[in-house]
Amino acid sequence: xxxxxxxxxxxxxxxxxxxxxxxxxxxxxxxxxxxxxxxxxxxxxxxxxxxxxxxxxxxxxxxxxxxxxxxxxxxxxxxxxxxxxxxxxxxxxxxxxxxxxxxxxxxxxxxxxxxxxxxxxxxxxxxxxxxxxxxxxxxxxxxxxxxxxxxxxxxxxxxxxxxxxxxxxxx
Length: 171
Ligand SMILES: Nc1ncnc2c1ncn2[C@@H]1O[C@H](COP(=O)(O)OP(=O)(O)O)[C@@H](O)[C@H]1O
Ligand SMILES: O=C(O)C1=C[C@@H](OP(=O)(O)O)[C@@H](O)[C@H](O)C1
Description:
By secondary structure, the protein is α/β, with parallel strands linked by helices.
């Protein structure tokens, strides 16, 4: 089994889909933000505040090299900016989860814990800037993807099933 690497904009559902995939397959999942938080023993939000974005991106680079050299048979969910790593294709099959910006925002806002979910993502604090970032990144996500899944109006389980089918076809 090759690694599957899940990319997509903040809040599109990378973590949620990963959690469903592991329920219905033999994959185990890891998340690049979780790895970084445990390496640093502080949250992504704190890393951005205390050490800045460049420092965070350097940690992503370190994680990407480790993934390429040391991880196999794994479903890897990533932070929204991780797709910029140059060795992405050497890590595994790249699956892009997509939905329009407004739909992603609506989902996050409808969660009972919405203020916390928005706060923990520093790049979502300014919604106008976040929308610009989405527009800028969309073609880049498309360019790097081996597989694209539109997650709009689908449950995380439906997305997980579609992902496994498409990965099988891709192999
Ligand atoms: N398919 C889905 N349908 C409805 N809500 C979803 C779906 N996937 C994720 N969500 C919700 O959207 C928010 C962001 O999901 P999350 O998995 O944390 O995204 P990411 O890991 O891409 O940042 C969460 O509140 C989650 O419950
Ligand atoms: O899009 C980005 O550049 C980021 C997305 C976040 O992850 P999620 O996509 O899980 O929110 C996190 O890695 C950090 O705040 C930067």
